[in-house]
Amino acid sequence: MSGNDVYLSELDKFVRPFIGYPAWGARQGYGSFLTFEFGDPELKVEERNSEKRGLRRDAYVQGEWHVWIYCCVWRFSSHGHQIAWSEDPKDQIYRATGMLDGQKLVSVHVNPSKGQSRFDFDLGGLLETWPVGDDLTEEQWFIYSPHNVFTYRADGKYSLETPDTRAEQERWLPFT
Q1: Which residues contact 12 (CB under 8 A, 6 or more apart)?
Q2: Does 44 map to a domain?
Q3: Tens digits of per-residue pLDDT, 164-174?
């Protein structure tokens, strides 16, 4: 991204509490999804009941702030050298997530006119995202905090809602 990147106040306010925290638990999820954590770990337990599987309980550890890189193209580089991108084989992505672990978050920037974003880290790590496909209403990433979720879309708009907000009630705002 260029010098035209916009550092935005709502995003700045949201990420300020975990700037300077090290990322941990970085891993590849389904397909090219990435997740990583910041802050104190917390045990999460969720129960689900389905007709096919019956009652099921999942237990996992999640950070106070949880980042989910979702439907977008992403690239992780270190000191200007690409380590992996969203379409690489799992072993290359594993290498990138290993390098991301332990790096402290320095800043998060977005360029809403292009639907791009970047996460800068203190040891030279850089995670960049940009839209994939033609659906500009596709969510690129989510950052879950203890009380809210900041969501960034391919069209450069964001929402800041509680985790239990239904999709049809979500408000999408332009960065100003």
Answers
A1: none
A2: yes
A3: 999 899 999 99
